[in-house]
Structures are given as structure tokens and as C-alpha cells.
Amino acid sequence: MEDAVLKAIGKLAKPYRGPDDARELLALASRADYVLLGEASHGTTDYYADRAALTKRLIAEHGFRFVAVEGDWPSCFTLNRYVKGHPEGGADARSALRDFERWPAWMWANRDIAELADWLRAYNAGRAEADKAGFYGIDVYSLWESMDAILRYLETRPGSDLEAAKRAFACFEPHGEDEQRYGAAAALYGEGCEDEVVELLRRLQDEWKDAAAGDREGALAAEMNALAVRGAEAYYRTMIRHDAESWNVRDRHMVEALERLTAFHGPGARAVVWAHNTHVGDARATDMAADGMVNVGQLLREKRGDAVFAVGYGSYGGTVIAGKDWGAPAEEMAVPLAIAGSWEERLHRSGASDKLLLFGGAATALDETELGHRAIGVVYRPSRERGNYVPTVIPKRYDAFIYFDRTRALSPLSAERAYR
Questions:
Q1: pLDDT tens digits, 240-268
Q2: Residue 98 burial (C-beta neighbours within 10 Å; 0-12, 13-18, 19+)
Q3: What is the mean pLDDT of the chain?
Q4: Residue 331 predicted with pLDDT over 90
């Protein structure tokens, strides 16, 4: 089998030196409504820089309307306002990234994102508001920040649903902005706030459709914050007892957030999605399926079929930014060379150079081969490297795969603030 895998890689793999070698990939991706760009870690500049380069071309050359990322709505919305030229977003990219203070801030408050933000701002300059490319967060962790944002928004609008927001806020208030405390109270003692947040979302849903032109995105933000509160409530309530189900709550939330953003941008709107490989690569091609887990890539493929194009990333070795424990200071760590027999090690053995693999053509030995595929999170301990490999049939997980033989840690803009 090993010889067959190496032979198949040799036939499929093409040299990759960045977007100049991505013409065929972009031609295929540009036909999709959702282009999912993964990453094997949250702390690697090569992945960020390459995703940014591909994203710029999808926006500028193919008309993609927005970028949606594995980040919180409130902090990403500040950056979104910056790239669209609104004063509340800040005067420069560094100030636009000021709201990324929740650990791990380096995921978004880094030099690669600052450079992309400045490019988006320049691209949007002079365009009509409805034609500007946006940047949005679709993750589920911003329970308290989203509640605060909703209250601030409604307090400025007489006759709004402020009382519904206050009822939801009052329900959460006894838990002192402690997600674990709320999750335990909701899951174990029935002291949850599900009814209140569902009602709040119902009241704010689709208000952007009737808002004045200059306030449409503000009304959208209120709805998306309410969606984040509903998703966060369900996530923290389920994670106390069911790790797999809390994962599913999170990824279903991200898909719903994407669908709402697409509806806001109108018929034909297309999106570029940035998230970890574990979210964008189809879960059915991994051992996640045996644990009852789904993810964004699977859910979108089930709904949209060929309108989804997923790109995975990986590397043989290098450096990465991560923390040794949840909330620990960010540090640059060495990424050990990929373990023998993994996808990354096979790709290295086929030639120690960067490669692009496009799948979906004639069947190869890779289509039935399950090997370990490295996944590094925000918490990483290189000494426990063997636990970071996900059994994967890689051509079924992605439509394309970009391999870097060596990768480098990204550059955070500032030191971490304490995790709340």
C-alpha cells in the first residue's frame, strides 16, 4: 500500500509557490458558493498568508462578497466596520483589532490579519456600501460580549425590544460571566436561559430587512449577536455532559450564521470561510463520524453539494504559536517532524517541497487510504504529538490540499490579556 500511496501522490502533486500556482484551484473554487479554507493549526503564518492571498483573488477576480471566520461576532464586527471605512472601526488595522482580547487573541490579532484588513479597506474604498466586502465572525463563544452589544444597540432605539434583552441578560447575570458556572447550572439543575434567548432572537430576526439603508448592517449585527447568545447558551449547557454534542452545536451554529450572512448579502452572494481543518474538512472522511460528530464541511456539503469547495492545509514540521494549557501565555513552539506513516510524512517523503493536490479526478489509491492527519489546536504540547493525528481519507475530506514542507509561527500584535 505504501508504494501505491507514494506513487499516487507523485502523480497528483504539483509544485506550489503560492497563488501564482493556484490558477486551476481558483478556477474550480470560483464556481462554488462557499470556499472553505482550512488550517492545520491556529498559529501558523504560512496558512494565514496563503488563505489571505487566495481570498483576495476570490474577492477581486471572482466577486466573492464576504469572509466568515472561526471568530467571535462582536470583535470581528469591529474589524468589519474598519474594512468598510466606518469610523467606529478605528483609524488603522491595529486599532481595528483592539477587541480581540479573549484568549487566544493571536488567532486574529496578528500581522497577517492586519495586512488583509488593510487590503480589504483599500478594495472597499469608493465602493457603494452594498458592494463592499465584509469580514464576520461565526463562532459561538461570545455569550457576554454579544449580550452587551445587544443592550447597547437597543438602548439607542426607542420602541425597541430592550425589555426582552434585559430579561435575557438578567437570567445570565447570577452566573457572573462564568461560562462553566452557567453550563453546570443549566445542565445539572435546570437553571438555564434557553427560553429567554430564543425569544430574544425571534424578536430581532430579520429586522435588517426593514431598516434604513444606513442601519441595515447594525440591525444585522443585533440579530447575529442574538444568534451567538442562543448558540453559546446551548453550547455551554451541552458541554457539561456531552462533548460530541457541544461540538455539533457549535458547527451547526456556524452553518446557520453563514446562511444568515448569505441571505443578508442577497441572491448570488458567495463567501470565503476560514476555519481549522477539523471544521472545514468533511467529518465523514474521519473518525469523527464514529463519535457522532458533524462539522461545517459535512453540513454544507449535505445541503449544497458541489456548491462547496474545501481546501485543507498541512505541513511536515516547523514552528507554531500556541499555549501549553487553556489560557496560558502564547509562545512559539517547535512542531516535530510528522510521525511515520502520516499523510504529512508521506507527502514529505514524496519530495521535500511545497505541493498542491487537487482531488475529484480519476480514482487513485488515496481514495481508500486512511492515514493520520495532523491537527494542532490553540492548546498544544509537542511532547504529546501522537495524540494530534486524525485518521483521515484525505481526498474525501477535501477538494484540494496544500502542503508546506516547513511552516513558521505567526506574529501576534501584542501580548495576551487574561482569559475571561
A1: 877 789 999 999 999 999 999 999 999 99
A2: middle
A3: 93
A4: yes
B/e letters for 253-288, b = 16+ CB within 10 Å, e = fewer, are: bbbebbebbbebbeeeebbbbbbbbbbbbbbbbbeb
Answer whether residue 265 is part of any domain: no
Nearest to 56 by CA among 106, 118, 14, 105: 118
Say yes or no: 187 and 294 in one domain: no
> So what's the pLDDT on residue 176?
83
> Could you tell me if residue 351 is left (phi over 0), alpha (psi between -120 and 50 degrees) or otherwise beta?
left
Would you say 79 and 86 are in contact if contact means Cβ atoms under 8 Å apart?
Answer: no
Q: Are 207 and 225 in contact (CB under 8 A)?
A: no
| Domain range for 153 | 140-249
pTM of the model: 0.95
Reply yes or no on whether the pLDDT at 49 is more than 70.
Answer: yes
Strand partners, 191: none
**From CA 250, how far away is CA 245, in angstroms rounded?**
9
Q: Which residues contact 420 (CB under 8 A, 6 or more apart)?
A: 102, 144, 177
Do 279 and 396 lie in one domain? The reply is yes
Beta bridge partners of 321: 332
Residues 417 and 284 in one domain: yes
Q: Name residues whose C-beta falls within 8 Å of residue 172's C-beta, 6 or more positions apart in sequence.
A: 143, 144, 147, 182, 193
Measured distance CA(5)–CA(12) in Å, rounded: 11
Number of separate domains in the chain: 2
**Which of 292, 209, 223 has the alpha carbon at shortest distance from 256?**
223
| SS3 of the chain: helix, strand, coil, percent, to 5 | 55, 15, 30
